[in-house]
């Protein structure tokens, strides 16, 4: 008996395991997510699709709750749905959403309670079918429909679909029909209030019907213009384009699709143009009459012109003789001006050179006479050693002065040479402006003397220009010397500011000092040769040389401004490249 009971138990256990394996196999091959939870929300069974979707092994799910697998808000929704099913004790359908590893999926879930053999509630079983793609497809269809409705509503015309039967029953008509006819689209749908044919002008109905049927018979797109009657009693001209819609294998069209556009303004314009054309023809006839009169007048004028031409030719001869005399007079005046300008230039050059050379000659004569006198005194032994040393010291001072005057003469000659030099004599190479300007400032540092002059240089390291280093140095030296000897003539301190800005096609150098400035009446003359406000101290060639170098050698431009008591400012513009 005991053996029989054990055998029965084994059979029952075997049968239960077999049923369990069979159930697992069935749910594993299902394309729906299947799971079972107990009344406490713990999973006791899941199928293989559940494991695949949520990337979890069965052992990682069994015994866990939704809070262990999903985010709190999703888990809460699942638990609420489970409670509803267990409370109602009936099967219920839910649309549920999961988000796992950043992927959102939507499901239609059938949840139902399950009971043990005693009829006691054991938990909830769920079968979830993935509807993500279906929802996306529905959303895409809704999006396309919305786009189509927007597109149709924005078309300046009537879009329609109607049957091909004699009553042309409308299945769809866009709302623009109201703008065109004064009747809403709902009046024409299924011919509920009126047919579209009823608003076509009676004289055009047969023409429209024939055109449409011809297009359907030939399976071609048709085009037609006709009149319709607006609700307010006015007549509107329209242009219609339509064609039949045929399904594969069907001989007859299922329906008719088309567009109707209001062309009333164009027709009215055509009629107006036709009226204007008729008026133009009449105007042309009048013009012909006028032209005949003009032709007669022209012949009369031609006779008068011949007579006047003869008089003009005679006057031209006399005028040419006068012009020849004026030309000779002008040439003589120009020649006289040239000679006068050359004379002024030569006079200025002679004056500038003769001043230091004359002073040098005077000193040389003094030195020569002093040496002869010392020689005579020395020969006759009538000069003491102290007197000899004093005389030689005077001669030494004279020699220093002579050298200074000769140096000034050489500087003037160098400036004249620089002014008259050809551009080809100078090397034009790519130059970094900042180190070049810094070297110029260093060279003229000794010219400051005891004056406290602050120099501010603003220039980026990458400002490069294709130019002549020698000429740019000369320009800057002229400006610095002009400020030191003119702007700060009676001042012990001052500020010099140099700002350099590079652009795509040019470099602008703004040079400023806060010296005494330049008188307003002198501003227009500062670039004239030999002009100076310090006769005997300055040559008057410096700013003239600067102007020639900048404009003729460096192919740039220079200007000067000097607000009252605010110093002087020179703006020099140089091209980045010398062509």
Structural write-up:
Strands 2-1-5-4-3 form a five-stranded antiparallel beta sheet, with helices on both faces. The protein has 579 residues and is of the alpha+beta class. Strand 1 (33-38) and strand 2 form a beta hairpin. Among the domains are: 2-132, PAS domain (Beta-Lactamase, 2-Layer Sandwich), CATH 3.30.450.20; 155-262, PAS domain (Beta-Lactamase, 2-Layer Sandwich), CATH 3.30.450.20; 423-575, Histidine kinase-like ATPase, C-terminal domain (Heat Shock Protein 90), CATH 3.30.565.10. It contains 13 helices and 17 strands.
Short key terms for the protein model shown above:
Heat Shock Protein 90; 17 strands; Beta-Lactamase; single chain; alpha+beta
Write the layout of secondary structure elements.
Layout: H1 2-28, E1 33-38, E2 43-46, H2 48-54, H3 58-61, H4 66-69, H5 72-88, E3 92-100, E4 103-115, E5 121-130, H6 132-154, E6 158-162, E7 170-173, H7 177-181, H8 205-218, E8 222-229, E9 235-245, E10 255-262, H9 264-379, H10 385-420, E11 429-432, H11 433-443, E12 452-458, E13 464-467, H12 469-487, E14 493-502, E15 506-513, H13 542-553, E16 557-561, E17 568-575
Parallel strand pairs: 12-14
Antiparallel strand pairs: 1-2, 1-5, 3-4, 4-5, 6-7, 6-10, 8-9, 9-10, 11-13, 14-15, 15-17, 16-17
CATH superfamily of the domain at 423-575: Histidine kinase-like ATPase, C-terminal domain
SSE run? HEEHHHHEEEHEEHHEEEHHEHEEHEEHEE
| Poorly predicted tracts of residues | none
Strand line-up of the largest beta sheet:
2-1-5-4-3
CATH topology of the domain at 423-575: Heat Shock Protein 90
Helical residues, percent:
40-55%
Instruction: Please write the CATH class name of the domain at 423-575.
Output: Alpha Beta
Task: Count all strands and give the number.
Answer: 17
Multimerization state: single chain
The profile of the biggest β sheet is: 5 strands, antiparallel
């Amino acid at each position: 008996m005991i053996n029989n009971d054990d055998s029965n138990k084994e059979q029952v256990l075997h049968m239960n395991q077999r049923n369990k394996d069979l159930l697992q196999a069935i749910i594993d091959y299902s394309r729906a997510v299947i799971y079972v939870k107990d009344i406490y929300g713990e999973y006791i069974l899941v199928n293989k699709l559940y494991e695949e979707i949520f990337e979890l092994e069965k052992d990682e799910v069994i015994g866990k709750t939704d809070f262990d697998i999903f985010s709190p808000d999703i888990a809460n929704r699942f638990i609420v749905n489970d409670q509803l099913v267990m409370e109602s004790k009936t099967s219920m359908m839910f649309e549920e959403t999961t988000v796992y590893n950043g992927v959102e999926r939507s499901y239609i879930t059938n949840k139902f309670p399950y009971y043990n053999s005693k009829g006691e509630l054991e938990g909830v079983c769920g079968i979830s079918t993935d509807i993500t793609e279906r929802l996306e497809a529905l959303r895409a269809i809704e999006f396309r429909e919305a786009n189509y409705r927007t597109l149709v509503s924005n078309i300046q015309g009537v879009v329609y679909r109607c049957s091909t039967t004699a009553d042309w029953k409308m299945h769809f008509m866009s709302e623009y029909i109201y703008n065109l006819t004064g009747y809403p689209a709902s009046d024409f749908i299924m011919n509920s209030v009126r047919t579209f044919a009823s608003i076509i002008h009676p004289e055009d109905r047969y023409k429209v019907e024939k055109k449409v049927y011809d297009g359907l018979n030939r399976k071609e797109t048709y085009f037609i213009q006709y009149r319709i009657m607006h609700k307010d009693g006015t007549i509107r001209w329209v242009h219609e384009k339509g064609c039949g819609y045929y399904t594969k294998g069907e001989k007859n069209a299922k329906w008719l699709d088309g567009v109707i556009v209001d062309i009333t303004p164009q027709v009215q314009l055509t009629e107006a143009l036709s009226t204007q054309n008729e008026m133009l023809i009449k105007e042309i006839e009048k013009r012909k009459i006028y032209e005949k009169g003009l032709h007669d007048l022209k012949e009369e004028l031609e006779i008068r012109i011949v007579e006047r031409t003869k008089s003009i030719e005679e006057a031209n001869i006399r005028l040419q003789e006068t012009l020849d005399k004026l030309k000779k007079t002008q040439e003589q005046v120009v020649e006289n001006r040239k000679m006068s300008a050359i004379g002024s230039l030569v006079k200025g050059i002679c004056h500038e050179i003769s001043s230091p050379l004359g002073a040098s000659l005077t000193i040389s004569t003094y030195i020569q006479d002093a040496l002869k006198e010392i020689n005579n005194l020395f020969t006759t032994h009538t000069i003491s050693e102290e007197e000899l040393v004093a005389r030689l010291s005077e001669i030494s001072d004279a020699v220093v002065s002579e050298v200074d005057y000769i140096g000034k003469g050489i500087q003037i000659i160098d400036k004249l040479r620089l002014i008259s030099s050809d551009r080809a004599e100078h090397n034009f190479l790519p130059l970094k402006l900042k180190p070049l300007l810094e070297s110029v400032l260093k060279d003229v540092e000794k010219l400051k003397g005891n004056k406290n002059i602050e120099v501010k240089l603003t220039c980026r390291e990458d400002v490069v220009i294709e130019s002549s280093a020698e000429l740019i140095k000369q320009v800057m030296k002229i400006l610095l010397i002009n400020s030191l000897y003119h702007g700060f003539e009676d001042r012990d301190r001052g500020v010099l500011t140099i700002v350099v800005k590079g652009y795509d096609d040019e470099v602008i150098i703004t040079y400023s000092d806060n010296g005494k400035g330049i008188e307003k009446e002198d501003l227009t003359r500062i670039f004239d040769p030999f002009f100076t406000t310090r006769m005997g101290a300055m040559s008057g060639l410096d700013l003239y040389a600067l102007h020639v170098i900048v404009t003729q050698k460096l192919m740039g431009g220079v200007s000067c401004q000097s607000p009252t008591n605010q110093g002087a400012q020179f703006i020099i513009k140089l091209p980045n490249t010398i062509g």
